[in-house]
Amino acid sequence: MTAQAAGLRCMFTYTLRRLAFAVPTVLVISLIVFLMLDMAPGDPTGSLPLTIPLEVREQIRAALGLGDPVLVRYFKWLHMMVIIEPSHMLANATGWNVAVEGPRILSWQTRSPVGDIIVQRIPQTLWVVGLGYLFGILIAVPIGVISAYKQYSWFDQTGTFVSMVGFSVPTFFTGVVFILIFSVWLGWFPSMYDTTHRVRDWDSFLFQVRQIAMPVAVLALFNASQISRFMRASMLDNLNQDYVRTARAKGMAEKTVLLVHVLRNSMIPVVTVIAIGIPTVFTGAIITEQIFRVNGLGDALIRAIYVSDWPMVQTITFIFAILIVLFNLIADVLYGILDPRIRYD
Amino acid sequence: MTDTTPVTAAEDVHDLRPPRNQWWDVWDQFKSHKGAMAGMFVFISILLFVFAGPWVWQVDPGLIDIRSRNQGSSWAHPMGTDQLGRDLLARMMYGGRISVAVGLTAMLLGLVLGTLIGVLAGYFKLMDGPLMRVTDLFLALPLLPLLLILVTLFRDPLEGAFGQAAGVFALIVVAIAVTSWMQTARIVRGDVLALKEREFVLAARSIGTPARRISTRHILPNVMSPIMVSATLGIASAIITESALSFLGLGFPPDFPTWGRILYDGRDWIEQYPARVVWPGVLISLTVLSVNYIGDGLRDALDPRIRGR
Questions:
Q1: Residue B287 sits in which domain range?
Q2: Model ipTM?
Q3: Residue numbers of chain A with a pLDDT score lower than 70
Q4: Is the distance from CB of B289 to CB of A169 less than 8 angstroms?
Q5: pLDDT tens per residue, range B78-126
Q6: What region, left, alpha or beta, does residue A122 occupy, with left being phi > 0 and alpha being psi -120 to 50 degrees?
Q7: CATH number, domain at A201?
Q8: Which of A68, A123, B33, B152 is spaced 20 to 30 Å from A184 by Cα?
């Protein structure tokens, strides 16, 4: 067997091992989420008119599946959660005929399936969070590299200070300050996100850019300050290594040493940090969505919590949990690919 | 040249004194970190403002004076008043008390929990597997949504049991602690695993020291450094979490003005009276920033590899 094939097989078993741990984690989390909200006070029949006779009310409860033992309800819920709802979401998104027949999870506030609401909410969150993260990375990497290369220079001093501030000031305050400066005083950007806005021509596109600028900037600043700290530390670790001295001794151009040798090695931990950070950004965006009134997933969660719409809360929390486990898995596998030493533990 | 002899003699005398406590070295190193010293100065000022301030500025933060509502800065109200005419300076002081108290207690509780789990997992092989699986599981939980759910679910029963203020306080502190102990547990476990193999632990065990005594007397003092660093980070994140909860309207009720709550209430008036969101925001940010700088300085000061230089 060639060395490459052996490496591949090793990588494969490594991935399988990680996967074998991820699935039970998701199951346990789903159980926790289910049980927590199952014990919650509040009853879907509580808001029905009192004139409904008691036996009819019992029938409604039975129809909603509230009379079964906890475990039965859990498995029914899990079946709806991981099979029926995703299949409908996929069918809605792509138009394929893959929707599985069966009862669906109904939101108590709108009486429509939660999957449909979530599919409507996801694009806004993805745009805001995704752009915020992307810009954050794009800002952070060069700053981290220059800061580390010119350690203790004025650039490094300012950079570390700004990233410390950006990382300490909570996003709900940066958001409010941005609204104050850019929409109240300067009037450049709208303070509220208009979600009914559709991009049709150049002008409406410009409006979209203007209304998405502030939430994206808030998230980008926060993410950039975190990632640039990692980037700087990782670069500093690598800059003093022997292989850097070797590369310089060979007479390589400083640019090649820095951007090819050091940067590639320093990116290994940073890439995993970026992968692990993605779900945190989703949950953190709950606050940003509240500030700018973006009707994304986080906004749906907060509204559902306000009105005790537990099926909705369960579903969104579970989606966040899956994102965390999934991106942890991706980060582990990425680390295994990028750094072969990790696989043999 | 003649001066050198007395100096060395003096140094010899100096060396004969009992050895300096290592915490003095840590303090010396900490003092040289400018950011950390500035952070400490700011943090102590904020503590004074919050805890000693109400003795100087004796205005009732809940006093409603509707005739002097929505005022700007004046000698009577240095930070102005809100829409009900309540004095903002007094509210900032009382609100800060709650915010800082939540931060400190939640940090302490999370620290105790994390250290306990870390030491147990590191020291007792049998518990290592299960406890670390639990830690991994907690790390995989979506914390902010869970916090929000915990607060909504248990607010009413706890308010009924302990009264409004104490109930919400206990709930928020416990909820933050339960969702923030994992990092401490992991770091402590790693350190304990390494320490356990050292000779001094073997020596302690060979003279029959019980496991409980070894862990409290020999292991715990040696993991103090990482615990202290995560303590400072814990205060910062607890204060941010509490204000975020209040900002989402799921923290303290309006009668208990925490900084996050004042910010949340001021958000509706941002166009007319921006000062009402700026003051609490600045105070939250300054507290967190100063604590983070203290943490940075502590990390450098407690790292023996850096301290020697």
A1: 24-51+86-302
A2: 0.80
A3: 1-4, 40-49, 63-67, 342-345
A4: yes
A5: 677 777 667 778 888 888 888 899 999 999 999 999 999 999 998 888 8
A6: alpha
A7: 1.10.3720.10
A8: A123
